[in-house]
Known about the structure:
Mean pLDDT of chain A: 82
Largest sheet of chain A: 2 strands, antiparallel
Shape of chain A: elongated
Number of domains of chain B: 2
Mean pLDDT of chain B: 79
Oligomer: heterodimer
Protein name (chain A): Transporter
InterPro entries (chain A): Na/ntran_symport (IPR000175), Neutral_aa_SLC6 (IPR002438), SNS_sf (IPR037272)
Family (chain A): Belongs to the sodium:neurotransmitter symporter (SNF) (TC 2.A.22) family.
GO molecular function, one term (chain A): metal ion binding
Membrane topology (chain A): Multi-pass membrane protein
Amino acid sequence: MEPPSAQLASLAKDEEPQPWGSLGGPGQRPKTRRGAEDMESGAKEEARRTPRARGRWPGLGGSRSDPAHPRAAPRCSQERSAGRSRAMAKARARWGHPLQFLFACISYSVGLGNVWRFPYLCQTHGGGSFLVPYLIMLIVEGIPLLYLELAVGQCMRQGSIGAWRTISPYLGGVGMASVVVSFFLSIYYNIINAWGFWYLFNSFQDPLPWSFCPLNANRTGYEEECEKASSTQYFWYRKTLNVSPSIQETGAVQWELALCLVLAWLMVYLCILRGTESTGKVVYFTALLPYCVLIIYLVRGLTLHGATNGLLYMFTPKVEQLANPRAWIDAATQIFFSLGLGFGSLIAFASYSEPSNNCQKHTIVVCLVNSATSIFASVVTFSIYGFKATFNYENCLNKVILLLTNSFDLEDGFLTASNLEQVKGYLASTYPSKYSEVLPLLKNCSLESELDTAVQGTGLAFIVYTEAIKNMEVPQLWSVLYFFMLLTLGMGSMLGNTAGILTPLTDSKVISGHLPKEAISGLVCLVNCAIGLLFTMEAGSYWFNIFNDYAATLSLLLIVLVETVGVCYVYGLRRFGADLEAMTGRAPGWYWKAMWACVSPLLIVGLFLFYLSDYILSGTLQYQAWDATQGQLVTKDYPVYTVTAIGLLVAASTMCIPLVALGTFVMRRLKKGDRAFKA
Amino acid sequence: MLWLFFFLVTAIHAELCQPDAENAFKVRLSIRTALGDKAYIWDKNEEYLFRAMVAFSMRKVPNREATEISHVLLCNVTQRVSFWFVVTDPLKNHTLPADEVQWAIRMNRNRINNVFFLNDQTLEFLKIPSTLAPPTDPSVPIWIIIFGVIFGIIIVATTLLVLSGIRQRRRKNKESSEVDDTEDKFENMATIANSILCDSLDMKGGLVNDVFMTEDERLTPL
Lengths: 679, 222
C-alpha cells in the first residue's frame, strides 16, 4: 500500500491533560504581548474584537450556540495554555495565502502512489471499468473523511494530539497513534527520495548507466547477472541497492545511498525549517511541477511508437471485473491511503489556516485533483507501457528472424514480421529435421504477454520506466525530467509527513519552551536520518517493503475509524455541525452527516476486517528476494524475528489508542478519589 | 596430362576449403541490415576484395609475409551472404593453423569492417570473438560532481536560513524584553489599585471595565 504523502500532522502537545469538566476556570486567559505579534495572529485578534467571544469550549454548558455575532471567534479557536500568570501565548503561525494551504494538501495527497499504484490497479482490475468502484469509493469514503479531518484541524487549531484530546480526553491516544505512524512513515519514505536522487545524478551521463551491461572481469563478455536479468534490473538491484540474497544477510551500509539519504533529509530540513513560512513557499513548487512534467510526458508518450497499444489495452473495460470483490476493496484502499488520512498531517495543515476558511470547498478540490491526477498519470504510464511492450515485442521478433535467417542461410532481409509465419510453415515442411532442431530456440513473441506484465511500486518507477526511457531519443533529458518529478512528488509528501510529527512537538509548551523551532526540526530530521540508514544496507529494500506493507496499513484504518466514531458519537454529530456552522458559516448537509455517521465507518470496519482476516489466513508472511544467480525474484519466508518486528510495528501505533484512554480513565479516577477524600 | 593436373589441383582445393574443414572459418554478412537501401550486391569482385583483406591480414603475421591473394580460398557462398574460407601455404597442400588466422583477423578487424562499411555485428566471423570495447571510466564518477554541487547549495541555503532565524529571534527578544518591563509595571499598578485578579481578564495592555462581563462569566463554571 502506498501511504499517502506525509501530511503535516503536528500534534500539539498541550499542557497536562485537562479533564473535560475542569476547563474554563475563571482564571485561565492567555495574555498576549504586543511584541509577539510578528506572525499573523488569528484567534487572539478576533477574540479581542468580539468581547463576547471569550467563550469556553462549548461542551461545558451543553450545546449552546454562540452569541449573536456571526463572525465571532468560534469557541473551538480558543487556545488553551497553562494559565500561569505570565503565560505568553504566541499567536499561531498561518499560511501566507489560502492557496498555500490548498497546494500543501494537494502536494501531500498527490504522491508516488498516484503514479505507481493506481495504474497497476487499473490494469489488474480491468482497465476502464476500475474507474467505477474508484469513483464510488471517492464519493462514499474519500471526500467525507477528508472533510472531517480538515474540519477538526481547522476547528481545534492544534496538531493531532491536542485536537483529539480536545474532542475527548480519552481520544488523545488517537493523536499519539497518528504521530507514531507518521514517524514510521517518514523514516522509510525518504529512502525513495534518496533513490530518486541517485538516479537523477546518474542521468547526466551518456550512455545512461542502466542502458548497457558492464563487462565482466576478463573483458570477454558481459556480467553474468546482467545477462540473465536485464540491464535496468541489474542497475537497480546491483548498482543501486546492492541487494543481498535474503533479509537475514544485512550486509554493510552503501555509502552512495547513505549520501543521497543525507542529502534528501537536508532538503526536507531546508523546506520545513521555518514552519509554514518556508513550507508555504515550497508547496507552490512541489504541487505544480509534477503536473508540468506529466503534461510533457503525456505529449511525448502519446507520440511514441506503440503507445496506442498500451492505451487500448488499459482502457478496454473488462466489465466482469466489477463482480470481483477484490476490485472494490482495492478501490477503497487506494482512495483511503492516497488521500493521506489518519496521519495527522491534514489536521496539522488545517490548524494553520484561518478559522473561517471554507474547508468544504477545499476538500472537494483536493479530492478531485487527487483522483484526476491518478487517472492522468495512468494515461501517461500506459502509453509508456505500450511503447516498452511494442519495443520488446519487436525485438523478440527480430531475434527470431535473425535465428531463422542464420540457420537456414536465407537471404538477408527476406524474412520480415509480416511473412514470418508463412516462411516458418514453408521451412517446417521443406527442412523438417533442421527445423525441429531450431524450434525449441524460437521464442513465442506476444504483445499481449508483454503488456500483461503489470508492475507496481519501486519496480515500476525504477525498472520499467527506466527501460522505456533508455529507448527514447535524448534519453538523458527524459530521465532527468522523470526523476525530478518523482523527487518533487516525494518531497511534497515528506513535507506533510514531517509536519505531522513537528506540529505536535512545537505545540507542546514543554518542548518548544526549551528549544527553538529550528532545533526541534533539526533533531527530528537527524533522528529519522540515522534510523533511515538501516534502509541503505544491503538488505535495506526488504526492510523497506516491510515498513511499506505493514507500518501504516492496519493502524491507519483503526485510527480513522476511531476518529470518525469519536467525532460522531463521543463528541456529537450535531454539536460538531453547529461548530462548523459557527466557524465557517455553513452547516454540513445531510450527505456529510450520513457519510460520517454510518457509511464511512461501516466501510472502514469492512476493510479492517478484510485485511485482518487476510493476514491471518495467509499463514506465513513471505517476501520477494532477488536471486543473483538466476537473475530474478524468488519468494522466501520471513524469519521469526522479522515477523516479531512487524507485530511490534503495528502494535506500537494501535496500542496507543487504548492505552492512553485507559491512562486518562485511571488518572481521573485517582483525581476524583483524591477530591472525594479531601472533601 | 595438364587436365589431370588441373583437376587434381581443383580437387585438392575443394578438399582444403569445405564447411567444417580443419582451420576453416565461416563468415556471415548482413549487408541489407547494415546499409538498408544503400546495400551493395555481393559478387565475385567483393569476394576478391575479401580475399585481399584476409591476405593482407595474414601478411602481418610473422613468417607469413609471403601470403598471396590466391592462397585464400572461398567456398560455399550462400544467398545469406555467408561462406567459408581457408588460408593455404604457398605450396597449397595444407592450410595454415587456425590460431594464426584468428590472430591476424582480430588484429585487423576494424580495417576489414571499414572496407565493407560493416561492423562487428554485421560482418561476423564465427568462432572468432570480437574484442569488446573497454568501458570508459572517468576518474571521478559524474554523479559525485552533481551531488557535490547540489549538496553545497543546500548547505549554504540552510545555514543562511538558520542564521537569519537566530538573528530575528535575538532582535525580537531584545524588543519584547523592553515592552515587557513597561507592561509589567503598568499591570502591577493596576492590580494594586483595583484589587482585581488580572488573570481573569483578557488584557491587551489596558484596563478592562468589569461591568461588561460576558454571559458566560455570570454563571458558575463547573
